[in-house]
Design a protein that fits this description.
384 residues, alpha+beta, globular, 10 strands, 4-stranded antiparallel beta sheet, 47% helix, 16% strand
Length: 384
């Protein structure tokens, strides 16, 4: 059995490394020193470089100008983005584009995907619901307009609130999960500038602009609403897996920073890296990262294939989320501990990695919740 990546996937990694090589993690003001967002916009120059390097359309079919690669390739690129804290809506545009390509109408695919792959259209996803604790689809109600209501047929009416939507102020379209009157989840593709859509400013833990979005009688054409069974569950899991990839890249960069610092910082005439306590803590964090990596590729692979397993793919994603949520927190906490006071210096990038790690941890949710999901799946699908 061959577990190595394909030539196309490795080529995507090399292209991503070339683009991200010039990115400075501390290129904007520190979130620790900024009351509002660290910047009004994402890194447009980097976004253009990603588009010029054909990295925005990796998973799109060649019909839409893409390379036709799978989620594994996207996670490889996201891993590189996490290493440099790339301030671009890469995960959201990737996930939204894949959802539209997989489940959207022909009209929607033709209108959005070529522009998304070329960088001309920015997409994001409202995945946190109203509180961040309940299912995001429960926060917005979608009603299909019927003839007997004297309304134009073929439209959906949206009402509700979604909070903590990343890059919402800069996105052209927002994928909004909602529930029908029968309780079935759907995904509406909503233009940011649309009648009935109101954005309220929010700021993430990492200092980036988020938004609370209110939908008040928003009318969306039927072609722009994805009603396929399982579409929202699949998109939610793609977002979670991509977040795990970002966490892995961030953790690897932080462990590299820690190893470099510990090999140079001396106490009692010796580098602290030679002390057993420091070496053991660093080794534990290395094990965390390898577990994060193994579970990430398992989840990405399950989402990329159409083959049933012992458990639904949600189980593999839950395991990856458990390790990523706990692992990235442990990595940055150990890094702060081994750096001492230097780790809190706002002229040094580690504190920014810590803020991003906390934001990723919050996005993934607590490990205990994922363990409960995994337990329910195992109970419902006895192994063996």
């Amino acid at each position: 059995m061959d577990f190595s990546f394909t030539e196309e996937q490795l080529a995507a990694v090399e292209a991503a490394r070339a683009v991200f090589s010039g990115v400075a993690p501390d290129s904007v003001p520190s979130p620790a020193l900024t009351h509002g967002p660290v910047a009004e916009d994402f890194d447009r120059a980097l976004w253009r470089k990603l588009a010029d390097g054909d990295l925005l359309g990796l998973a799109l079919a060649d019909t839409y100008g893409g390379a036709g690669l799978d989620l594994m390739a996207l996670c490889l690129v996201l891993r590189e983005a996490g290493k440099v804290l790339a301030r671009v809506p890469l995960l959201e545009t990737y996930a939204a584009g894949l959802a539209v390509q997989t489940y959207g109408s022909a009209a929607l695919r033709g209108r959005l995907l070529p522009a998304a792959g070329s960088g001309g259209v920015v997409l994001t996803v409202a995945a946190n619901g109203r509180t961040g604790h309940d299912g995001a689809e429960l926060a917005v109600q979608a009603r299909h307009q019927q003839d007997d209501r004297n309304e134009e047929p073929g439209q959906w009416l949206l009402d509700g609130v979604q909070t903590a939507v990343p890059w919402a102020q800069q996105a052209d379209h927002i994928l909004v999960p909602a529930h029908t009157t029968e309780g079935r989840p759907v995904i509406a593709v909503v233009p940011r500038l649309h009648e009935g859509v109101t954005l309220a400013e929010q700021v993430s833990t990492s200092g980036e602009r988020f938004a609370e979005i209110t939908f008040d009688g928003v009318r969306i054409p039927a072609d722009d609403v994805i009603t396929a069974d399982g579409a929202w569950e699949w998109l939610r899991n793609v977002l979670a897996t991509g977040t795990c990839a970002l966490a892995l890249g961030l953790g690897e960069a932080v462990l590299g920073m820690t190893s470099s610092y510990a090999s140079k910082r001396e106490q009692f005439g010796y580098p602290i890296a030679t002390f057993q306590a420091v070496a053991v803590q660093s080794a534990d964090r290395y094990i965390d990262l390898r577990a994060m990596e193994a579970t990430l590729w398992q989840a990405a692979w399950r989402l990329s294939i159409d083959t049933p397993g012992a458990l639904p793919f949600t189980g593999d994603v839950a395991v990856a989320k458990i390790w990523a949520s706990e692992g990235v927190r442990r990595v940055v906490q150990t890094a702060q501990h081994l750096h001492g006071g230097f780790g809190a210096d706002t002229d040094y990038a580690l504190h920014r990695y810590h803020a991003w790690a906390k934001q990723l941890e919050l996005s993934l949710g607590p490990a205990a919740a994922h363990e409960e999901v995994l337990g329910d799946l195992i109970a419902a699908h006895p192994l063996g």
